[in-house]
Amino acid sequence: MPAGFHVTSIAETAPSQVNDKITARVVKPESAEDPSVVMELTFAPGAAFGEDAHRLPEILIVTAGVFSDGSAEYGPGSVIVGTPGSVHFPQSEFGCTVLAFHPAGL
Asked: Mean pLDDT over residues 75-102, rounded?
């Protein structure tokens, strides 16, 4: 591995419950040197997060299933960019997996 690189496996990262139907695997936590966070979110069928207001940017990449933000649905390969001040309602009727990148932290 070249200097300055770190490899983590999503499959080897322990999940934590966000709520009863959403789990998160934080594969890149924030640190003093780098506030960015990367996590995989898994939505079971019928999962809903509720209102999610952002003071910092968020980038979501749908990797499986269908993700909804409360106004539209997005399938695999969709990239959703939320700017500071944006609000959405993350949910999935049939279930989905989303890679979430928070470049400035949470």
From this structure: 95
